[in-house]
Specification:
This protein is α/β, with parallel strands linked by helices. It has a single domain, classed as Rossmann fold, CATH 3.40.50.2300. 42% of the residues lie in helices and 13% in strands. It is built from five helices and four strands; from the N terminus they run E-H-E-H-H-E-H-E-H. It has a four-stranded parallel beta sheet with strand order 2-1-3-4, sandwiched between helices. Helix 1 (13-27) packs parallel to helix 5 (124-146). The longest helix has 23 residues, at 124-146.
């Protein structure tokens, strides 16, 4: 299974999801899931936000080599699931790549069908709040892969 995490610029939430989920999958020894990330905007290969790098590093995760990339039709075609951070990211897929809409879910579903807010440019506390929510969603998902119902 291939999962693509999608956010706006691919410098904050989606790379955090990619690297944290990758860390969880390795830790839980789940080899059949591959993760990647992208954004709906082209950011010219921007690095991960420094606050996100520090938060990932506090979990022993190095994302310093990551560079942003925009989602393409090929990326969407290669994955079995697209997990978006906000409803507007789902709308972007609906408007630009409707053939992949059936693969899309919000990162906070099924518990909550609400957006995961973008902390970019906010305080460290706002980043930690957003990333804590994200990491909890990813932990539940990783455990569901490990122990399917």
């Amino acid at each position: 299974m291939r999962i693509l995490y999608l956010c706006t610029a691919n410098i904050c939430r989606s790379p955090a999801a990619e690297f944290y989920m990758g860390h969880l999958l390795e830790k839980l020894e789940i080899p059949h899931v591959e993760v990647s990330s992208a954004g709906i905007l082209e950011m010219g290969g921007a690095p991960v936000d420094p606050v996100v790098l520090r938060e990932l590093a506090s979990h022993g995760i190095d994302a310093s080599e990551h560079r942003s990339k925009a989602a393409t039709a090929e990326m969407l075609a290669r994955c079995g699931e697209v997990i978006v951070m906000e409803r507007r990211h789902r709308a972007w897929i609906r408007d630009n790549h409707p053939e992949h809409l059936r693969k899309v879910s919000l990162v906070r579903e099924p518990e909550e069908s609400v957006d995961l807010f973008d902390p970019t440019g906010g305080t460290v506390k706002e980043y930690r709040c957003a990333l804590d929510l994200l990491f909890k969603c990813l932990e539940r998902r990783a455990l569901a892969f490990k122990y399917p119902v």
